[in-house]
């Protein structure tokens, strides 16, 4: 029987939603500032940014975790808002660039900036959004901005490694994990470390960074599992297969089934992968049990993440991170259940 959430956790949840609302307002203000700053510039750059950042359907996972890690060490809320906004701007800048690299026409069920305004506007919009992230941090400890720069470099290297790995059905799982750690885990880790650095807690920064990096990988594993299914969540389905991305479930399935390995190789060597072929391959991948293996890998990442919290695990905020992690795992497992 499930326990009722404590009053403390309920209060944290209420505070969390208020925090996310504050972050949304601050994001809008940051984009308005970007439009009005400096010499006259094309409004198209900020319009492209708003199309992605303020479009809705965003999970705001990074701001939520920023707040919860910050609550665990009593970091000031106004400073956490700045970190959360900067993290979302860094994330958005990377997505604007990624959509150009991928030639993507949709994201979150909407046309991308790349599709609406072209590659030049999308790239320059991404550049401008990244600079706004640094502006957001100007009143915070310099080490946070320095680590933001290092994080963007790590993300960039991760994306380049991902591009070079496309179509490689034999990609070793340790290389897959290194790519994921760079392109996804590093920004989660920066958000968590920054919350601790606001109050100069070095031990918390190390523990939170390791925890959040693993949560970022778990978050991506759940996303990769959703990509193989048509669940009506609003997420673009089968994009990884269409983009020839060797995700964990695809690599596991190819390692388990020679038939699936040949089918992946055939599709990824073809001039074009059709949506119908991608959906059929998604079913074949899941038929190997790769979905359950993905959930197991997600479970291992979450277990290691929560262990990294150490003495902070029982503090307000940290306990909500534990609950969020368990919910992420439960949702991933639930997608594998037969639906009538």
Describe this protein's structure.
The protein is mostly helical and 340 residues long. The protein has one domain: Farnesyl Diphosphate Synthase, CATH 1.10.600. It is 74% helix and 1% strand. Strands 1-2 form a two-stranded antiparallel ribbon. A hairpin with a 2-residue loop joins strand 1 (106-107) and strand 2. Helix 3 packs antiparallel against helix 4 (77-102), helix 11 (248-256) packs across helix 13 (275-287) and helix 12 runs antiparallel to helix 13 (275-287). The radius of gyration is 20 Å and the shape is globular. It starts with 6 loop residues before the first helix and ends in a 6-residue tail after the last helix. Residues 1-6 have low confidence and may be disordered.
Strand elements, count:
2
Task: Work out the helicity level.
Answer: over 70%
> How many helical elements?
15
Task: Detail the poorly predicted runs.
Answer: 1-6
Q: Order of strands side by side in the largest beta sheet?
A: 1-2
| Run of helices and strands | HHHHEEHHHHHHHHHHH
What is the CATH architecture annotation?
Orthogonal Bundle
**Largest sheet data:** 2 strands, antiparallel
> Could you say how many structural domains there are in total?
1
Instruction: Fill in the CATH topology.
Output: Farnesyl Diphosphate Synthase
> What integer value in Å does the Rg equal?
20 Å
Spell out the key features of this protein.
340 residues, mainly alpha, Farnesyl Diphosphate Synthase, globular
How do the strands and helices of this protein lay out in sequence?
Elements: H1 7-36, H2 44-53, H3 61-72, H4 77-102, E1 106-107, E2 110-111, H5 113-117, H6 119-136, H7 142-165, H8 173-197, H9 202-227, H10 239-242, H11 248-256, H12 258-269, H13 275-287, H14 290-308, H15 318-334
Antiparallel strand pairs: 1-2
Helix pairs in contact: 1-2, 1-3, 1-4, 2-6, 3-4, 3-8, 4-6, 4-7, 4-8, 7-8, 8-9, 9-14, 9-15, 11-12, 11-13, 11-14, 12-13, 14-15
